[in-house]
């Protein structure tokens, strides 16, 4: 009667024998990831030591194999999560910030619900119910949960642990229609006045006086549609205010991660985000003033920086902007609101394609859906057209 075939990553009976030179040797058959059963052996001063050394060698051999060989439909969901995160690190295709966001969402939103379930117990009904429960809390939670749960289960399908992904059949999320907000010219100028008053030291109590950077940062955002991280990453070499048309190159961004020092990332959010933007006069004037105050800067020095020469953090700039504006009675203004304001202005006065190009978007649908405030005003030419079509006849 033949022995049952070993499964991947398992070993057969261990045999131990004494050797002529002294000591003992233990050996067994181990079935590797490629399906081949190979003899593995190890020595020791005693039979028990030889077996222990052999088992340690087999454990090390198992670590060198893809860990999915240890997963099955009866494995715990938490084991799949560990394997999924390891796979993300091996692929190294997404940014560390996104990777950390995935892990945070998985551990805080999904794992508390699925931790004690095996993979075969996670079906369409359970996933659909979970996403709907998240949606009752917020659309954002449901969306974040859906993304990471789908990715983890998709890996299980791709590595032949599950036959299909139950998330493929979960009902679509519904979100109330959202119209992006944008600032008017009057509101922009009110913000400018509030920042100028603060930078001039009005009502200043104690501490160092403002250095004028906040106002310049806002003008650059209004003049380029750049993200706050892109503005804070602008170097001296990225600026040309001496040419007929002043230019700024947006090609890198500032990144702040929990537990790490803020640093300059050598690429922006997407490939399309690398762009050279012509500056309107108000933005180029702000850059010139900033250069004059900063003095001689090394070509790789940041245009905006702390007093110690380190990068400004996006969180600190947001906090400072909120403090200054709330002190002036202005609420609800974030750096991203300036990006939507620029997109709306360009769309209203030119085309959505030009707005998308300025923002660095690959698809105008993103620009329309998330960045452009829809105007309620219908072209008044319709009145003349309808007069022509339905004017009453003369008596």
UniProtKB/TrEMBL annotation:
DNA-binding among keywords: yes
Listed GO MF terms: DNA binding
Pfam family, one: Phage_integrase
Keywords, sorted A to Z: DNA integration, DNA recombination, DNA-binding
InterPro entries named among the record's database cross-references: DNA_brk_join_enz, Integrase-like_cat_sf, Integrase_catalytic, Integrase_recombinase_N, Integrase_SAM-like_N, Tyrosine_recombinase_XerCD
Residues in Tyr recombinase domain copies: 178-384
A Gene Ontology BP annotation from the UniProt entry: DNA recombination
The family this protein is said to belong to: Belongs to the 'phage' integrase family.
Family annotation (PANTHER family): INTEGRASE_RECOMBINASE PROTEIN MJ0367-RELATED, PHAGE INTEGRASE-RELATED
Protein's recorded name: Site-specific integrase
Species, as recorded: Cryobacterium frigoriphilum
């Amino acid at each position: 009667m033949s022995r049952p075939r070993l499964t991947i990553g398992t070993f057969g009976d261990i045999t131990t024998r004494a050797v002529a030179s002294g000591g003992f040797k233990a050996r067994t058959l181990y079935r590797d990831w490629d399906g081949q059963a190979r003899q593995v052996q190890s020595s020791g001063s005693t039979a028990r030591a030889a077996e222990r050394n052999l088992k340690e060698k087999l454990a090390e051999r198992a670590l060198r194999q893809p860990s999915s060989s240890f997963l099955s439909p009866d494995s715990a969901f938490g084991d799949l999560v560990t394997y999924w995160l390891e796979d993300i690190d091996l692929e190294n295709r997404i940014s560390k910030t996104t990777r950390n966001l995935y892990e945070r969402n998985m551990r805080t939103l999904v794992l508390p619900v699925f931790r004690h379930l095996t993979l075969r117990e996670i079906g369409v009904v359970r996933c659909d119910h979970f996403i709907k429960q998240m949606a009752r809390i917020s659309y954002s939670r449901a969306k974040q949960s859906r993304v990471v749960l789908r990715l983890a289960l998709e890996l299980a399908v791709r590595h032949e642990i599950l036959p299909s992904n139950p998330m493929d059949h979960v009902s679509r999320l519904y979100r109330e229609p959202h119209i992006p907000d944008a600032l008017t010219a009057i509101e922009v100028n009110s913000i400018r006045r509030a920042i100028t008053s603060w930078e001039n030291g009005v009502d200043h109590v104690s501490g160092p006086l403002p250095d004028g950077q906040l106002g310049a940062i806002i003008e650059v955002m209004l003049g380029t549609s750049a993200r706050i991280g892109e503005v804070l990453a602008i170097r001296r070499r990225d600026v040309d205010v001496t040419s007929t048309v002043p230019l700024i190159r947006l090609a890198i961004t500032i990144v702040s991660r929990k537990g790490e020092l803020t640093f300059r990332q050598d690429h922006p959010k997407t490939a399309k985000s690398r762009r050279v933007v012509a500056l309107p006069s108000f933005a180029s004037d702000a850059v010139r003033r900033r250069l004059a105050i900063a003095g001689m800067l090394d070509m790789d020095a940041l245009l905006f920086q702390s007093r110690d020469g380190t990068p400004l953090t996006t969180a600190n700039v947001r906090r400072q902007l909120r403090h200054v504006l709330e002190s002036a009675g202005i609420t609800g203004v974030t750096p991203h609101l300036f990006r939507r304001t620029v997109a709306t202005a360009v769309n209203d006065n030119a085309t959505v394609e030009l707005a998308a190009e300025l923002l660095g978007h690959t698809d105008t649908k993103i620009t329309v859906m998330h960045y452009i405030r829809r105007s309620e005003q219908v072209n008044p030419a319709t009145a003349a057209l309808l007069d022509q079509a339905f004017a009453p006849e003369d008596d």
